[in-house]
Amino acid sequence: MFERFGDLPLHVLVIHLTVVLLPVAALTLIAFAVVPRWRRLLRWPALVLGVGTVVCAFVAKESGEAFVAAVPTLAKAVELHEKRGNLLFWYCLIFTVVAVAAFLLLAGIKGDKATKSRPLELLTQAAVVVIGVLVIWQTIRTGDAGAKAVWEGQLPKS
Q: What is the pLDDT of residues 23-42, one digit of tens each?
């Protein structure tokens, strides 16, 4: 199911979406959390993107495993990339939970702040910023490891 899309390995296609979506989702949720006047506007995009990250990371992870299963000679080369991708999936899972909590606590369905507790609001904002930065950082690290696994020694020296 996760091996191919047409004639191409699914992983090759989905990683491009992942590399764009995850940082955009993280930055959107961070803006939603730390800029109160933007919350009403960003509440639904932040929620949808927040949930979308875990779906995207799951498909990237599963398609990567299917790709290596189809081409077992890649296993050693992508070992670090795979480890980082697994960690990124867990970060995205936490990010999704934090995104849903932030949506419910900071904006709510109607756009009215659900919590009147300032400490809870600050804790939610801090959680969003921390997990958002971790998702961006781990996306970069994972992509870098994957790119090096594919291109190391294959590009001509400048």
A: 999 999 999 999 999 998 99
Distance between CA atoms of residues 122 and 118, nearest Å: 6
Q: What is d(CA 134, CA 3) in angstroms, rounded to the nearest whole number?
A: 28
d(CA 111, CA 37): 11
Q: In whole angstroms, what is the distance from residue 158 CA to residue 7 CA?
A: 33
pTM above 0.85, yes or no: yes
Are 51 and 102 in contact by the 8 Å Cβ rule? The answer is: no
Alpha-carbon distance of 58 to 74, in angstroms, equals: 20
Check: CB of residue 57 under 8 Å from CB of residue 18. Answer: yes
**What span, in angstroms and rounded, lies between the C-alpha atoms of 2 and 111?**
37
Q: What angle do CA 151, 154, 158 make, to 5 degrees?
A: 105
